Amino acid sequence: MAGGEANSGGHVDLGPLTEYLGYALRRAQMSAVTEFLEAFAEVDLRPTQFAVLTLIAGNPGVRQTEVCAALGIQKANFVPLLNELERRGLASRKSVAADRRSSALHLTPLGNSTLQRARAIHEVYENRFVTRLGRRGRDQLLALLNKVMEAG
């Protein structure tokens, strides 16, 4: 817009933003999270909660510090998340005999059944990406994102 004219509500020129990888990653992440929240409303899980339940299911007795390290969650943020999963009856903490300061994490029966339903929902959610990208495009995108994560 020349001469300081105000935008009248039409098209907003994003300028170079559309060429910035960080901008594209963030917008894609925002879109994916929005779709995730809509898909997972039935089981009332957020992406990090789903990841934590998945990790505990695959590693019964895993310690809180190990979950935090594996998922890149700060302990201060993990404690309220775990408290919420416990409050909902999805996960439990058990003291570790060798180290009373450490807790082993387990899914409850309700946590297991909720995760089973969430995995079925996730399959549909994931297939939406495959539909948009194609199987090969999905695999390429995943490989590229893994390279980005390795660098960080």
List the strand order in the largest sheet: 1-3-2
Main sheet characteristics = 3 strands, antiparallel
Shape: elongated
The residue-averaged pLDDT reads 92
Strand content: 5-15%
Quaternary form: single chain
How far apart the termini lie comes to 38 Å
How many helices? The count is: 5
Name the helicity range: 55-70%
Please give the radius of gyration in angstroms: 20 Å
- SSE succession: HHEHHEEH
**What are the low-pLDDT stretches, counting only 5+ consecutive residues below 50?**
none
Structural class: mainly alpha
Instruction: Say how many strands there are.
Output: 3
Task: Give a brief rundown of this model.
The protein is mainly α and 152 residues long. The protein has five helices and three strands, in the order H-H-E-H-H-E-E-H.
Strand-helix topology:
Elements: H1 21-39, H2 47-58, E1 62-63, H3 64-71, H4 75-87, E2 91-96, E3 99-107, H5 109-151
Can you give a write-up of this model?
The protein is mostly helical and 152 residues long. The chain is built from 5 helices and 3 strands; from the N terminus they run ααβααββα. A 3-stranded antiparallel β-sheet has the order 1-3-2. A hairpin with a 2-residue loop joins strand 2 and strand 3. Helix 2 crosses helix 5. The longest helix is centred in the C-terminal third of the chain and has 43 residues. It starts with 20 loop residues before the first helix and ends with a helix.
What would the keywords be for this entry?
152 residues; mainly alpha; elongated
